[in-house]
Amino acid sequence: TVSVLYWRGGPMQPGDTAPDANQTAPFGNSPKRAPIDDAARVAYLGDPAQTSYCSNVFISSMYTWWNFVPVVLLNQFKLISNIYFGLNVVIALIPGVSPITPITAVLPLIIVLGTAMYMEGTEDYQRHKADQKNNSAPVYILEGREWVKKKSTDVKVGDLLRVEKSHQQHSLKADVLIISSSDDDGQVYVETSQLDGETSVKFKKAVRETQILQTIDDFIDKKGKLKVVMDDPVKDLYKWQGSARWILPDGTESAPFNLNVENTIWRSSSIRRTDWMVGLVLYTGKETKMGLNMEHKPRTVNTLDTRLNVAVLALFILQNIIMIILCAQSASFAVDHKSDWYIETWLKASPYETFFLNYLTWFILLSFMIPISLFVTVRFCLRIQIKLMDMDQEMMVWMLGVGEEGAAGWVGCKPKTSYKNLELSNVKYIFSDKTGTLTENKMTYVGGAVPSGNGNTWVGGGLEAPSLDPLAGFHITHPNQLLTTDPDTPARNKLMAVIVLCNTVVPVQDEEDPTVFTYEGTSPDEVALVTAAKQHGVVMTKRTTRSITISANGKEATFNILAVLDFSSNRKMMSIVLQTPQGELILLTKGADSHEGLGRGMFERIDACTNDDAIPAEFTATEEAGDAEAVRLLKELWTKAPIGVDTPSPIHQQHVELCTTTLQGYGRKGWRTLVFGWRQVDCTWFNTWKASFESIRTATMALKGPHRDHRKEELEDAAKLSMERELTMGGLVAYEDMLQDEVPETIKFFLDADVAVWMLTGDKLETAIEIAKSCNLAKAGGLLFEAHLAKAAGSPSLARREEPEVAAKNLLQELKDLVAANPPNEVTLATDETTLSYFLNDKNQDSFLEVSKKLRSAVCARLTPKMKGTIVKACMNMQEMNGTVLAIGDGGNDVTMINEAHVGIGIIGIEGRAAELASDYAIPRFRHLKRLLTIHGKFSRYRTAMCVGYSFYKNLVLSLCQVYFAIFSGYSAMTLFDSWLLAVINTVFTGAPPFFMGCFEKDLHEEPLLHPVTGPVLYKQQRDENLYMNAKSAAMWVGTAVLHSVFVFWFWYPTMQQDDLDQDDGRTSDLATHGAAIITGVILVTIAKAVAHIRHHTCLQFGSIVFSYSFYFCFIAVYGSIAMFCFPFSVCETQFYGITAYLFGSSKFYLYCFFIGLAVPYITDVAGLYVQRQWYPTYLDVVQWNEFYPGHEEWPICCCAPTPELDPDCMKEVTSQSDVVQDPGAPRTANEDRQQPDADEQEWTRGCSLTQSVSNVSIGSSKGSVRRKASQQQPASTPPALFEMDSTVTRCPLRSPHATLRELYGEPFINKTPPPSIAPPLVQATTSRPTFAL
Fold this sequence. Notes:
Blueprint: E1 41-44, H1 68-76, H2 80-92, H3 102-135, E2 138-143, E3 146-151, E4 160-164, E5 175-181, E6 187-191, H4 193-196, E7 202-205, H5 208-211, H6 216-221, E8 226-230, E9 241-246, E10 257-260, E11 264-265, E12 270-272, E13 276-283, H7 289-292, H8 303-336, H9 351-365, H10 374-390, E14 397-399, E15 409-411, E16 414-415, E17 427-432, E18 439-452, E19 457-459, H11 491-501, E20 506-509, E21 517-520, H12 524-535, E22 538-543, E23 547-552, E24 555-568, E25 573-579, E26 585-591, H13 602-606, H14 628-639, H15 653-668, E27 672-680, H16 683-699, H17 708-723, E28 728-739, H18 743-752, E29 756-760, H19 765-774, E30 783-787, H20 789-793, H21 804-820, E31 827-832, H22 833-839, H23 845-852, E32 857-861, H24 865-876, E33 884-889, H25 895-900, E34 903-907, H26 914-918, E35 921-923, H27 928-966, H28 979-989, H29 992-1000, H30 1006-1010, H31 1014-1024, H32 1031-1058, H33 1071-1093, H34 1099-1119, H35 1139-1144, H36 1147-1175, H37 1179-1188, E36 1221-1222, E37 1257-1259, E38 1264-1268, H38 1301-1305, H39 1321-1324
Parallel strand pairs: 17-29, 17-33, 29-32, 30-31, 31-32, 33-34, 34-35
Antiparallel strand pairs: 1-8, 2-3, 4-13, 5-11, 5-13, 6-7, 6-12, 8-9, 9-10, 14-15, 16-35, 18-19, 18-28, 20-21, 22-23, 23-24, 24-25, 25-26, 26-27, 27-28, 30-38, 36-37, 37-38
Helix pairs in contact: 1-3, 2-3, 2-9, 3-28, 8-9, 10-27, 10-29, 11-12, 14-16, 14-17, 15-19, 16-17, 27-29, 27-32, 27-33, 29-34, 32-33, 32-36, 33-34, 33-36
């Protein structure tokens, strides 16, 4: 958006007329706006009665008191499991069908639905409380002749709100247009952290036409006389356009004046460093920006839901197979025994009727195969799991600007969803931003260069001596000399001027020392450059929306701002038009040296010798409805007279080449760069350009169609480029962004785990490659393939390339050949957006995605936010892609790819909270991604799998016992168990163990999962083998359930058959007695299995086991004591009366309990585990053995225990002299990077006493370049980089059946000292940290 300020004196150019003070633009009146549609949205100053829009009641809650129950029930019955159990309840209510008391079938469903309603209700209650607090916040509205304090719900469109500095604890409660403020220029400082997360202060301003309204009398006099026409409500925080006009006394309207987003403040923003501000309400309630962006995210389908549905479906099919068999047998039994006198009453029905009725009955009895409490239990477990993520102290850092008013505080992981916990353990692709994600996003100025003489030489920024700063020793006698058009002005003056003036930084004066200034801004690189200018003696001391004041050598100078052309991703540049103290108009521009978007970068704007001054052809065609007028105005603007007034001669091609060489050198060092340009602007031309630009902006309001906003931005950018041309080189600067801690180790960990890591950045390709090398993304000694169309065609400009599709196809074929000729995960791809756009078109996409599966990593440079999302989406649609796609970023430009990925991770950084708010999980640093995936992702998978598997297991044991009993009851669906015991066995008796296993169970300690040797292997194994959730695991649970049910039922069957459970009083047992004994065995064996499989023993785990045992026996003791007259028969059956005492008096019952509760689970499970671990061990078994028995040197028996140890005798070279071109000392060229390896790039093989030496090798190509770095000679005794091996060595079979982890790296890693606390020493004594005893 262009912020146009007003002329403030100074000499005019010859022939110009000084503007009138009452004019509304620097040079003449604003252009008249096109006719406004009568249906357009309008607001009248201080007169809400003339309009009627939605109320300002802000509602974030999902339910009301009257729709809560029906809506929640409707959502619950969208789940297939609840539909199943609802059908089960309906059948149970049919008279004569249900074998159990109907209420016992209804009660479990009521418990499940009640729990779900409780969870939904408590969450929504918190939303209601927040809404109530929000809607009752005080606001000050102009009524009559005073500012009246009211609730925010009373605000209407058209009201005038007054906000004072003392009100900043209450953020704005509506979207407003700034009418006036305490600042003379109408300037307002705004903080929007509650809206977009950015804590930096932003400029907002009132237009000059309304800033004159200062007093209540002024507002009353103009009440209803200002008509504001605006856009309809949209979500985008940075897009808004409107116009306003005064209603004259005769009823006519004045010429309109334009409004833009710089004149507005959105709801939830707060004013800073401004005494007061008056605003006109534009949008209220759900139509505000905050309301439109507060949508409830729909629950997405996740892996767990899919697998649970598959499991339920499989059990439903198994259940129906069993039921059909049993019903067929029951019909056959009825036919065969119809003549038996003692049962003929019950066998009178026809076989078909018998089949149907028994099917309904068996449907109820075997419904216990599917655990009704499972889905609620899993939901609770997932919530506990994300709570553990939130409380993990190892993922907490001490950060500034996270508390109120920018205070410091502890920041940890912030999970936004629990449904994607399992996806964290299944990641196959990581798409990462660079700046702020892999780096600190804390820029440091490191140097620069300026043209000298006629442009043949450069001063400063030498590659061999980067300390040669062109600003070193900078001195001027007066800041007026900083920016002039005098050809004798030193070049570094221009560079300093662009650095300190071409930005959006705001200076903040220290309250205690007025001579000290700090700077705030949305761009860290701008803050770094302005800070560097201050260190060199040029200080920005004041900035308003109309001027910038700088100080140097004790003197000040003020530069008036005429226009600001903000940065856009299309142009990749930012410009400002200033009036110098001498009255000259100068355009300052900074941006990327080159890119493939609109304008093609600074070099194309500087090199005026080309014919690139014509409007880009793609913006002249009418693409969207209503843009014909805007395109016509755009053509006229580009065809008008050139800018030129005494413009210095443009630099020649040699100058550009020297600049390019310098930039490439900076890029190889991993530095980021900006190119600066300037030119003098003719006063008349600026007036013409400004009028045309406003006309184009006005015309774009008529745009329609789905791509209206995008098209509007394109047209405005094309208009801005008409000003940003014929520039003179001002110089270039380099600034460094350091890597975050442990980034190389984290990326190497994931690469070793066979996770493909792609770095998506907007930086230059050279810079991205160097960062990739420093963070282990590009493997030292590996293959780096550069796919760059501009290099492929031998031309620096995209516009001059010939047949780019052919070149892209050839590059893709070279990449495929290279990948095919090397082992998997050896090649790293480096490319840019232009090349990727051809790789991802309809012709090449399938081939590119196929070869992408075999890439180790990729570096993609010069990408726009849209292209980042396109790459992620294409990868997600890849065929046979078994794994999760994860995207991680820290800024608003990463939101697109975060939303596209299966799992989105936001970095809590200094670029605002846009990425954090859009993410599924937010973490403070990139290194915490390793812990999030390997610890919390792994444990979430294991815990959930244990909870789900155990739940199905215990229900199968119960149901199969009922099936066995059917053999001896004529398949008649007679129930073996008491109805009330069946009703609560899942939710009460055996519900606690799976819940606590799903919350706190672990199969390993944390250290082996994080270790660089064992961690990658374990992560890869669990992902590739779908560990704990594959068919093998399911078969083991089912097989164990069948085996245990056989023991439970058939061990008691002889007692039931012979009825020898007699007491001394002569009483005999009945069916209820035997059913009670068998269900006791079911409970004992299932709980004992839980005890046998728990590895991580905690007080809660132990308590759940004790509770389950004790509560069951207490329950049956009380239940067996209830006589028939205590409760109505429909509520409580009475056949259990006295059974508990009868069983407790039998010694055979105690023997049965001992055998079933202790012997069966431990004999069967331990024996199976012994066989598996001794003869078929997995890598996980080896790690667990070393963890629990660190003192043992050998695996317990002679078996092929899988370890990552290599046999030296099997090592061999796979690279022959015929495969490579020897090039031991080739210098680096523009297309190939051959340099001697650093110390950290040396790689050594493991477990062998030999020395290897491989020469530098290079596989060259005319269109792409491949680079390989090799190691130097070094004895093998040097401690190896864990799990690394030379690129010329392949993996070989394990060399020893007795190999253990101790042989790999000395002492057991479990005995190593854990990493130190992350707490800063200076705050440990004063800052409390959250703790979690578990």
